[in-house]
Amino acid sequence: MPLYRDQAIVLRTQKLGEADRIATLLTRAHGKVRAVAKGVRRTSSRFGARLEPFSHVDLQLATGRTLDVVTQAESIAAYGEGIVGDYARYTAGTVLLETADRLVVEEKEPATQQHLLLAGALRVLSTGEREPSLVLDAFLLRSLAIAGYAPSFDDCARCGEPGPHRAFNPASGGMVCTSCRPPASAMPAQATVAHLAALLTGNWPAATQADPKTRRESTGLIAAFFTYHQDNQLRSFPHLDLTPGGP
């Protein structure tokens, strides 16, 4: 079987037979890949904990007819060590993984930007450098943008009229002017709109200055936008701890 090498983040795993696992991976060059890790559930496995969710690994894989096979695995970063012991980080982390799995639809299609975004978010989440809710909200907006669902927080998402505007509508693609505003649109505070824009562009000095009320409103709008454009809510959303600062 032809061999190839790539960096990957483990999104999820499932048992296969008595000792194997199927790992769903987001690789840097080959996009989403499903691969069998043979014997990984045995205590003597040379892969050990390298193929657990949140792990960033360097892999050698053999191309298979339906599933590829992991033949080598070297750890780049065990992000799970800084995530799984903290409830706020863990619940945010599970949403990160599920989001990447959801947005990268086709297997073996390059998704380098999504891979790099996820790796960066997991690194920051694992170190506690920024609060989990901020990391998650920024990731959701930026991953949606990479996938082609970039929200507009300035010009009208429908007609392009320069902003600022007062109404936000997920179905329309973000902020909308008075003429384009559909019924039941949200009317977020201007501070919330500015915070959303800061998260989308990675302006962390501005994003971290937002007060709890602004961040709560932003989180709700992001969740509504994501749910609309992905047809349904992520399974991991209800378990989130969205309190600024975490437990």
TrEMBL record:
Name of the protein in question: DNA repair protein RecO
Chain ranges passing through the membrane: none
NCBIfam families: reco (TIGR00613)
Keywords linked to the UniProt accession: DNA damage, DNA recombination, DNA repair
PANTHER family tied to this protein: DNA REPAIR PROTEIN RECO
Organism this protein belongs to: Kribbella hippodromi
Pfam (any one): RecO_N
InterPro entries from the UniProt entry: ARFGAP/RecO, DNA_rep/recomb_RecO_N, NA-bd_OB-fold, RecO, RecO_C
Family: Belongs to the RecO family.
Its biological purpose: Involved in DNA repair and RecF pathway recombination.
Domain DNA replication/recombination mediator RecO N-terminal: 1-79
Keyword Transmembrane helix: no
Gene3D superfamilies: Nucleic acid-binding proteins, Recombination protein O, C-terminal domain, Recombination protein O, zinc-binding domain
